[in-house]
Amino acid sequence: MSDSECLFNRVFNEDAITGLQRIPDGSIDLILTDPPYGLGKDYGNDSDKQEAADYLAWTERWIDAALPKLKPTGSLYIFLTWRYSPEIFVMLKQRMTMINEIIWDRRVPSMGGSTRSFSSVHDTIGLFVKSKNYYFDLDAVRIPYDAATKKARSRSIFVGAKWLELGYNPKDLWSVSRLHKEDAERVEHPTQKPLEIIQRMVLASCPENGVVLDPFLGSGTTAIAARRCGRQFVGFELNPEYCAIIEARLQSAEAELQVLNNQPTEPVRAKPVLKKASKVSKVDKRTSKTTPVLTKAKAEGVKTTVRKKSVVALET
Prior knowledge:
It is a single chain. By secondary structure, this protein is an alpha/beta fold. It folds into 2 domains: 3-135 and 170-255, Vaccinia Virus protein VP39 (Rossmann fold), CATH 3.40.50; 280-314, no CATH class. 25% of the residues lie in helices and 21% in strands. An 8-stranded mixed β-sheet has the order 1-8-7-2-3-5-4-6, sandwiched between helices. Strand 7, helix 8 (221-228) and strand 8 form a beta-alpha-beta unit. The longest helix is centred in the first third of the chain and has 15 residues, at 52-66. The chain is globular. The N and C termini lie far apart (61 Å).
């Protein structure tokens, strides 16, 4: 076992910038992180209580320490808020290529909030890649159409289409409810993210048995998602109480490998065979000429197109 492999599938109770020095360059497939937002949140320490200039300088330091760890095909997802996302996105654009700005709609109820501004109900997520050859598996995260939608798209031109059978591409607006106290996966952490969101990122941007790095593990959702999806992980967390929560989650059924099959349960339909209709003759009273028609096809609801002396039956 190599030195780098000894570091994987472990949670380190230490500062990320210090710990990242031990991670070999070019060994990580995906960096997925939810760092302090600079909003003064209580994480059991002062990590989120910095002035703007200090916060941005610190962000630049950990980014510069983390990015060399990515493989050439690697990607970065970073959670932010409107407050500092413009500055941090510009910083990252000088180092990587930006692929998406994803808006996570937290489904916050329409009540409360400031009377001097619009209520903030979303987080901003940046997706950045190291090169144009970045790994991305769209089929792993397609959203299947329901039976009613598939039935409505039953015309022959749609049958067998990959997007119809496997599902559609998730958009860059993700409407997923924040975790509430009664949610089964909720733990004692002020900014815990839903597994549904993190698993989508892992499946899309980290190959099987690849390695996910989270410099700010928090409640450990990145590690849980990696384990459930058959990926490896490594991460850092300053608060020892959060480290204990992560270890407990990793030992629970929540972290067991899942059979994540995004394929629709309905079988792929075979292309229909065009029906052959029998011809009959009908006398046109105005010209006394006979014209071939498709009375049987019409009775069965098949559209007809008359081309001089021939008739073509087209399925609806």
